[in-house]
Write a structure and sequence with these properties.
Shape: rod-shaped
Organism: Nematostella vectensis
Strand order of the largest sheet: 2-9-8-4-5
Protein name: Ig-like domain-containing protein
Distance between the termini: 171 Å
Oligomer: single chain
Number of strands: 19
Family: Belongs to the protein kinase superfamily. CAMK Ser/Thr protein kinase family.
Main location: cytoplasm
Helix content: under 10%
GO molecular function: ATP binding
Radius of gyration: 41 Å
């Protein structure tokens, strides 16, 4: 009996659904920087992929650059702003299935330039009393550095001077004020984007000031001058005197 050849069938390759072997990672960047999302997917047949922000597809062009190479699939977003924040996805598909990887982009805006919500004001305090100088910052602003000055000299290591901060209020307290505390006080805010300052004049009232203000030595602002006149003419002598209490003038 003659053998009849039997055709052998080639086993079909099974499809493999997409699988991300390198997933997207969250990105945290500063404004104006470039965000770069990278992932890598395998599957059979070779899967296609699509980038989305939320559920909205992203196309190559403008600030978006989409690339595919040996490293994987890449999405770059240049010149980022806070409006670019959100969830970004890469969706890969072939005839055997779909896989998705997701990451969040966070963009930090630069800190605003320093500004006061409430500035220093001139004050008058009695000798021996405590004095508080206050400034307030906007609720959303955090100062990187706050400095206090008296007569343009940085205040540091002064036993009666205390600097405190509570929420947006910053205070310089002077215990038991003396006449030496009189002067111009200044508060300075600094960050990487600028500087702001405000100032106030402080006066200290007490017996010494009242004595100083109520007594003023006599002084001739205009003295007598020699004069020549003709016989029978009228002559005037003028003087100007200052002093406190008001001086009495006697002519001789």
């Amino acid at each position: 009996m003659e053998d009849i050849p039997v055709a052998q069938s080639t086993p079909l390759k099974r499809g493999e659904p997409p699988e991300f072997i390198r997933k997207l990672r969250d990105q945290f960047i500063q404004e104006k920087e470039t965000a770069r999302f990278v992932c890598r997917v395998i599957g059979r047949p070779d899967p296609t992929y699509e980038w989305l922000r939320g559920d909205k597809p992203i196309t190559d062009g403008g600030r978006y650059t989409i690339m595919s190479d040996d490293e994987g699939q890449t999405l770059e977003i240049t010149d980022c702003t806070v409006e670019d924040e959100g969830l970004y996805k890469c969706v890969s598909t072939n005839s055997s299935g779909t896989d998705t990887t997701t990451a969040r982009l966070t963009v930090e805006a630069p800190a605003p330039k320093p500004v006061f919500a409430s500035e220093l004001i001139d004050k008058q305090v009695k000798e021996g009393e405590n004095l508080s100088l206050d400034v307030k910052l906007p609720q959303e602003y955090k100062a990187e550095k706050i400095e206090w000055f008296k007569d343009n000299e940085l205040i540091r290591d002064r036993p009666r001077f205390t600097v405190t901060s509570e929420d947006t209020r910053h205070t310089l307290t002077i215990a038991t004020a003396t006449f030496d505390d009189e002067g111009i006080f200044k508060c300075v805010l600094l960050n990487d984007f600028g500087i702001a300052s405000c100032s106030a004049e402080i006066l200290v009232e007490g017996m010494r000031r009242r004595s100083r203000d109520s007594i003023c030595a006599l002084e001739f602002q205009q003295e007598l001058k020699d004069r020549e006149v003709l016989d029978g003419d009228t002559i005037h002598f003028d003087v100007r005197i200052t002093g406190r209490p008001e001086p009495k003038v006697v002519w001789y």
